Amino acid sequence: MPFADDSYLYCRATSTETARVNELLSIFEKASGQQVNFGKSSAFFSPNTLTDTRTRICSDLGISEASEDSKYLGLPSMLGRNKNSGLGYLWDKMQKRIQSWDNIFLSRAGKEVMIKLVVQSLPTYAMNVFLLTKDICNQMESLMTRFWWQTKKDSSKGIHWKSLKNLSKHKLKGGMGFRSLRDFNLALLGKQGWRLLVNYDSLMGRIFKACYYPTTSFFNSELGSNPSFIWRSIFESKPLLRSGSRLCIGSGLSANVLNDPWLPNDTDGFIQSSHPALIGTTVNTLMQTDVFPAVKTSWPSPKPKPFTHLLNDLLRETTVEKQMRVTLYCYITHRTEDVIKGNLKLSKLVPS
């Protein structure tokens, strides 16, 4: 699995697999003219691997075993059950950075710049991948508030006139515009979930779909019995994505009536109905056949009473009104597939 200028090689913890890895590396060196730097290479083992087996494999490969606190590209290579211990280096990093400013006199404006541009950006890289625990977020926010209210450079004491919740508000609302680390973390993870929705044919999208939701979509996925920490982190951002995205209807063949957000509503884009006839159905069943019988591209007119009565029986009256307001994506782009869009872009496709 190549990444940047490095590669991950996966194998079983046996002598036969180790010999094949050595053979593969030898072929690579002859074909490319490059040489593997074993001094910068390391081996990871599953927890159930015996100590003697680990020692033998490392000796055969000529590399060392990776430690528990090892990092790759700035992120922990392994995370155990105690996430506070594995991600605690972020708190240490922030504390050291703030302590390095003890000998510098900073005004309120200078502290504001340091907090917004330096301190709050330190955990951003890890927040793109991992959901930080609430304890770590609270500890880092406590460091920021102490630094903000600190009155003397040789003392961390100071009167906290406002809580971080008030400081995180916009300046127009009486705050300082500081970030809530928990909310910012969920927003960054929501970007990863958005990539799974939009770029579902990418390598990342195909791997996650095959592992966690092979027969359904990301919106309808479940956490699973033994999820990875990365999937668990992205899964936490799903309610945020469900509230801020809408499915633009083309043919309606891939849009589920009950489980996909496709109604033009700012608060809730899901159908509110418990009728058993709608379970497992797609949106195209609510559309009338146009010129071509095989493609349904328009909503039924309110005039045909039988079909209107059918909608009123299946859906609530307010839901029928919202459904009739949906502008078909195929009429705008001349494409028949159903496309997920952000709620802000939806205003351009759906009339008010």
From TrEMBL:
PANTHER family documented for this protein: REVERSE TRANSCRIPTASE DOMAIN-CONTAINING PROTEIN, REVERSE TRANSCRIPTASE ZINC-BINDING DOMAIN-CONTAINING PROTEIN-RELATED-RELATED
Write the protein's name. Reverse transcriptase domain-containing protein
What organism, scientifically named, is this protein from? Cannabis sativa (Hemp)
